Amino acid sequence: MTNQPAPLRRAYRLIAVGIAFLMILSASLSAPPATLAVTTPSTVTWGNPQNVTGSGPKSVFPAVAVDSNDHTHIVYFDQDNGQLMYTNNVNGGFSSPSVVERGVGTGTDPDLVIGSNNVLHIGYSDAGDGIYYRQGTLNGASVSWSPRQLISSEGKSFGGRLAIDNQTGTVHIAWINNSCGDYNVFYRSRSASGSLGPVIHVRENGCKYQTHPRLTVTNNSKVHIVFEDDGNGKEAYYGRLEGGGFVNQNLSHSGTNTYNPVITTDGTALYAAWEEGIGVGDHDVEFIRSADGGQNWSSVIPYSNNSSYASFPALAYSPASRRVYAAWSDNDGASASEIWFREFNPATGLTTAGDRLTHLSNASDIASIAVGNLKVAIAWQDKNTGVFQIFDIQGTITSVSPGTSCDGTLTLTDGDMTKNTTLTGTIAPKDNCVPDEMQVSLDTPITPATPKVGYSPTLPPQDVTSAGCVHTVYVRLFKDGVGGTIFSDSIKVDPSEVNATVSAVNPYLAGLPSTYSQAGIAAVTDDGRARDGDPRYTRLPMFFLRIDNAGDCTGLASFHVVGAGQATIPDGGFAGITSLPLGSTNQRTFNIEVTDKVGNTNTFGPFTMYYDTTRPVFNGGNVAGDSNTRSVIRRLIFNNIDVTDTQYGHNGESAGFWGIWVAGANLAATPNITSSNPDLNWSAIEIPSAGSTFSIDWSLFSGLNYAPDQSHAGDYKIFVRFLDGAGNPSDAVRQFTITLAPGYDVPKTWLPLVSR
């Protein structure tokens, strides 16, 4: 941070000056504050603070967001390694942080918002060289990030901040750069398609210093911004985008230095707060609102109006409780700053008392706050462990909109899954409430912008035309304009054919699972024949069937081998032995029908299998080993091989055999061994394009479990049989002796290799 230019240090005052300076300042400012009286009860029950980043690198500048499932997402800056980091608690606890981007350098103060379908949007600076935007798509707890998109690279650019219009998918971005000679605030929009609007100077003030922009968007898609401005003393300014430019006004009119303004909205009204520099060691947090979208503003409501040092306010609005939530840092009654919280009720104009949420050693600073359906999350940087780490606290909204709000349940007619692309259901209010309006949304969480319709216990038909398997219908009930808690029901919609992969192969084929989960396993036993062969052949009236789900929405239910058997498919698919269809020849051609859990079917095939129990006949030929007595790897040479088979050879296997079956024995250990000895370990070796002449490389140690040393010199007996595609071996055996001389070479690879 010490290498940043003076304007940047001034732009972020406490943030960019450096963490060490911030902590020294916070620790040195302490004064007993006055506490405001409780005027309205709180709607939030808080858990305990938790360290999100553990004892890792120095971690600062968190930004937090909560999705429609009440899962918390945090981005922050790993200052030691210059990395933009991300974590979430989708799986319950916070996941191990992951890197969004490396090498972003100093001055990266990221922002994070969540839009429709829980898409993540982040903005950040890369060492001041530009403001960048990235989009994150959730898959469970993991996120895939889009390539970064440059928003602005004029001058030095810092402090990118975002707001999203969920009605249009437009992301609104503000930042500061020094293109005019000093830092000023600029704005740009990014459409859902990724196109960028023009760069707009938010307030031209003779290029006097501006910083710390924050944005929000009301239901009429108006963009609202607050920022620090030095044009008329350091004041908190407000801007509203009208046409191609911003209409500005001074919010604070304080005559003292005003810092770190923030803004939020309930869709219509605006709420702003800032930090007022009353004097050295005495900063206050002030709050203000506009009921008419920024045309007129209330008088200031003090949130921390005492002699303590209160700084860095953050605001968020909760549709569930209809409250504005505020968090800030304050050294009220503590040796260092702690995180405080307060609620504002727009209906009454009353606030809760300030609530100190943390009691940690060292400084807790720079809070970020976000709200989901019934969850509030605050993240901040904390020096409790001796080096800055990211901390978080989770709050549950236990009191939703007071008065006559209605909650309810939705039950979709077709249950958990259906073929129907038109969804119907029943809406049932709770606690004898009689709602008069409701909001209904398909696959997009309800926002204040979702249109209201008259209440009906029958769900308006929802036509599912978008891609995807699982569809969710969201409902919120209203009574006298007061909304209840959002509820929903989900269903899998699968109107199309079955998506599966199906294979039918030799049940003795090498590489199949060692055990099968279905009936028929007893039929595949060690029958004294080869456990490999051609996938199209079988020596049993059965075959190995594998059926895997290839993205079928509702899951696979059953299969039917046309002309033979049928069975259910457990979750995860089928892998087992099933019967061949009957036939008058050894060639069996058949189809396999697969059905999913809502009755969709698909036919796979045709598959052709050959039922072959006949052994090949070895009519003659020469088989011998090479004369290299100094190597474990020996070449076995086959000349003038003549094999015939009445069953194998339907597909051009003119040589009459699929491969060979080889076994070896050390005659020093078993001098009288024969080919019928049960201790022989036979290896099936395919001979591609089998012909009358070929050779293979064979390790004399194959099947003998020998250590790769030089203690096994001597004579080896080699046995060879010929195999058809079903693994049937010839009765005739060729056998010969190979000598391995003392001092032989032991290579690292012993696998048999076919050569020409």
Question: What key attributes describe this structure?
Answer:
756 residues; mainly beta; Methylamine Dehydrogenase, Chain H; Immunoglobulin-like; five-stranded antiparallel beta sheet; 3% helix; disordered N terminus
Kindly summarize this structure in a few lines.
With 756 residues, the chain is mainly β. The chain has three helices and 57 strands. A hairpin with a 2-residue loop joins β21 and β22 (282-290).
| C-alpha geometry | elongated
Reported for the largest beta sheet, the result is: 6 strands, mixed
Total number of helices: 3
At CATH level 3, the topology of the largest domain is: Methylamine Dehydrogenase, Chain H
Tell me, rounded to a whole number, the average pLDDT.
88
Secondary structure topology:
Elements: H1 6-12, H2 14-17, H3 19-28, E1 44-46, E2 50-51, E3 59-66, E4 72-78, E5 83-88, E6 98-101, E7 111-114, E8 120-125, E9 131-139, E10 142-145, E11 149-152, E12 157-165, E13 170-177, E14 184-190, E15 200-201, E16 210-217, E17 223-229, E18 235-242, E19 245-250, E20 257-265, E21 270-279, E22 282-290, E23 301-302, E24 310-318, E25 323-330, E26 338-345, E27 350-351, E28 355-356, E29 364-371, E30 375-382, E31 389-397, E32 408-412, E33 417-418, E34 422-423, E35 425-429, E36 437-442, E37 452-454, E38 462-463, E39 470-479, E40 482-483, E41 487-493, E42 500-505, E43 537-538, E44 542-549, E45 556-561, E46 566-568, E47 574-579, E48 587-596, E49 601-611, E50 617-625, E51 633-644, E52 659-666, E53 683-686, E54 694-699, E55 714-723, E56 734-740, E57 753-755
